[in-house]
Amino acid sequence: MHHHNHHLIANILHLLAGGGLGLFAAGLAFAFGWRSADRLPGESRVPQCVYCYRPYTWQEIFPLIGWLLRPDTLSFACPCGLRKGLWQQPACEFAGFILGMAAMYLQDWSWGALPLCVGIGLLPAIALVDFHFGIIPDGHNILLGVFGFLFVWMSGGDIYFALMVAGILLATGLFFALVYSKWRGREMLGLGDVKFFAASGFWLHPHSAPWFLAAGGIIGVLFNFVWQRAGGGKQFPFAPALCAALAACILYQLTSMPS
Prior knowledge:
This protein is mostly helical. It has helices spanning 2-38, 58-61, 65-68, 88-107, 113-133, 138-154, 159-184, 191-201, 209-229, 239-255. It has one domain (2-255). The longest helix is centred in the N-terminal third of the chain and has 37 residues, at 2-38.
């Protein structure tokens, strides 16, 4: 019985560790991604208050603590307390925590779980930054690809397959961005989305790549329908649909991995 309890406690700690990694990745990627998307050339890369433009201190950037220590926390205020309703950061961190926990639950504890939980935690930040600004920061795409590569390498996967899938998805993205867009007479896929395709390839098994594209397309169509109905304008952000599709494919793959 004592051994069973010890096993249960270890499992709970592993889940919390996975959630914590996802939360940290989401929180930091959100803070720096938001600033990167909103920054003018030559301005500091340090995240800043959206109301008074004061650069954040490190405590304010720090995930979870960043908004828990703010005045009147539940109003989701900025650090100076003058702008309310900034729900994006806590929502992003909560989503990162849930994804990190889910990944750890399906993966079981191993070194490969570290880049897995961090990488999947980047997805809510990428989705939210693109939703608000219509761009995916290059740094986020690079990090997503790097952590995907590390996950394959540390969990004993096939690096050549990962590179092949990344190459195929990059070519597919370029086809949609350059050829199909020209044929349709409007931008069907932005270059940030193309880079996201390439980074996603490191996370996907060859047989998962078509499912990723199909799921991204279906979720994108549904999201675009809601976006147009809500008066969101002609150009709708595609990254939220791609991030949802990639997260679903990664989690599904983990269920079929030999543990």
